[in-house]
Design a protein that fits this description.
single chain; 5 helices; 55% helix; alpha/beta; 5-stranded mixed beta sheet
Length: 179
């Protein structure tokens, strides 16, 4: 499984590609940041984010895209930019027919470090260890993008089983009500 993780942001949008399957060693394929100038108008910045994500999708050809689920922050302006960048990432994936998974920051931290309250340094250290890197990716947005991809690879099998079970239950319920 090859996953593009996206840590959305208008100034720095972290991107990272990880390949592997749950229970086996994972491999980093690429990591980076799509940057936009803070003084540019929001529409131009969104176009730059879109162009950057499209380049990553074209070059690395992931099978899935994992995006950090936007959560409410105290700074409304920051959360708006994050939500807009997140929407751009989802749009780029949907345009290519790629499945998109949203993971909360605490889900990602828990998956990678064992604690949903881990700090950025702990996430970076575990990403470094799990991917057998020489040093944590910089900036933290890049490490967070890799953590999102790792989280998705590890969680996808369980999520798929749950979704199939729910769908099967719906079919059984529907058949039972038509009898």
């Amino acid at each position: 499984m090859r996953v593009l993780g996206v840590d959305p942001g208008l100034t720095r949008c972290g991107v990272g590609v990880v390949e592997g399957v749950a229970g086996r060693p994972l491999r980093m394929i690429g990591v980076g940041v799509v940057r936009t100038p803070a003084d540019a108008e929001t529409p131009r910045r969104l176009v730059a984010v879109e162009e950057g994500i499209e380049r990553w999708l074209q070059e690395y050809r992931p099978e899935y895209v994992a995006v950090e689920r936007v959560f409410s922050q105290h700074n409304v302006r920051t959360v708006m930019g994050t939500a807009q960048a997140s929407a751009v990432a989802m749009l780029c994936a949907a345009r290519r027919g790629l499945p998109v998974a949203l993971h909360t920051p605490s889900e990602v931290k828990a998956a990678v470090t064992g604690s949903g309250r881990a700090d950025k340094a702990q996430v970076g250290a575990m990403v470094t260890r799990l991917l057998r890197l020489d040093a944590p990716p910089k900036p933290a947005d890049a490490a967070d993008a890799l953590a999102l991809a790792i989280c998705h690879i590890w969680r996808a099998p369980a999520t798929d089983r749950l979704q199939r079970a729910v769908a099967a239950q719906r079919v059984r319920t529907t058949k039972g009500s038509t009898a």
